[in-house]
Amino acid sequence: MSDLLITNIRPMAGPLTCMLIRGGRIAAIGTDLVATDDMRPLDGASRIAIPGLVEAHTHLDKNLIGMGWYCNEVGPRLIDKIDNERAERKRQNIDPARQSARQIAQSVAYGTTHIRSHVDVDTEIGIGGIIGVMASRAALADHVDIDIVAFPQSGLMIRPGTEALLEEALREGAEVVGGLDPCGIDRDPKGHLDVVFGLAEKHGRPVDIHLHEPGEMGAFSTELIIERTRALSMQGRVVISHAFCLGSPDLALVDPLIAALAEAGIAIMTTGPASRPAPPVQKLRAAGVVVCSGSDGIRDTWGPYGNGDMLERAMFVGLRNNLRRDDELAAALDICTHGGAAIMGFTEYGLSVGNHADMVMLEAETLAEAIAARPRDRLVLKRGKVAAQGGVASFTVP
């Protein structure tokens, strides 16, 4: 029996209804649906249904899940963390295939059905991380969709040979060209963006650039990214991740950038960081900028935090942006669902007829309560099949 009839369910915390899943898609929604002998019944028990959560920014290849505690004594600078990670990757034997599978299982257990992962490409590891994550993606394709970014974590222009490796990663199957702090790390913004957007144009791929640069430096890099996006007509295909410069209190600096980002169709990814300036999500969304979110690193050599729960991430976004009203919390959830799906190009996403049946069912009265309480007992469906239940994935990993 391939058909599933879910009764007593509340899509997006609305009225009780029924939902028919056929061939992995939502075939019908309504109170008049009746089960037949060829349908599998599932009582929703008045639970809320939300679309599958979207992890729009993480690093599957570098977590330390299941590897014992890592004593972090790393210096405070970004380059300290980058250099330390490159050394620890060898010393700790961080196997990208094994570790990515472990993080995927943990994320799916929390209700994630789509992941965008930035995967390191550099002159020491080559594209080994890409190959490892691709192996996990293939093995777990029935449980999660994964988008891979070829990411020059150690720098691009400062590490000759990285450009060729990025291109190799794209040929092997990475979907997105990554970039990193054109001024702050590479100290060559023109050269860096020439490579990133050149590869994107050559291979017809979207772009997702880490931009930690603060204040005026970050604003300068953002302006250059906007110029490239316009010149190559890449509207809707570029993401700036972190974008700490947009959290500057200088509105004369920030407001024109937001307007230009909206006009250029560039999306913003924010983790809702506690320790750095954060992009103002309400102002961005009001201007028409797509905003998404992600966990970033999860228990890795950069820090011990993170668990892959995107409902918790919605809470962090809410806390960082002082979102308190129920409608504001619903917007935070939208950032962690539809926002991520939009930047990854998933058009058949959401709780509408015809879309893939990727959803999470959980006990809560409202969407705001789902974020505030974050109930652990979640039933996760991927293409209409159970991917996780009660905080446990339906599949096993190494």
* Low-confidence blocks of residues: none
Q: What structural class results from the helix and strand content?
A: alpha/beta
* Strand order in space, largest sheet: 3-2-1-4-13-14-15-16
Beta-strand content: 15-25%
The number of helical elements comes to: 11
Number of domains: 2
Q: What is the global morphology? A: globular
CATH class division of the largest domain: Alpha Beta
Order of helices and strands: EEEEEHHEHEHEHEHEHEHEHHEHEEE
Mean pLDDT: 97
Q: Gyration radius, to the nearest Å?
A: 21 Å
Outline the structure in words.
The longest helix has 18 residues. Helix 5 links the parallel strand 8 and strand 9. The two termini are 31 Å apart. This protein folds into two domains: 88 residues, Urease, subunit C, domain 1 (Roll); 291 residues, Metal-dependent hydrolases (TIM Barrel). Strands 3-2-1-4-13-14-15-16 form an eight-stranded mixed sheet. An eight-stranded parallel sheet has the order 5-6-7-8-9-10-11-12. The protein has 398 residues and is an alpha/beta fold. It contains eleven helices and 16 strands.
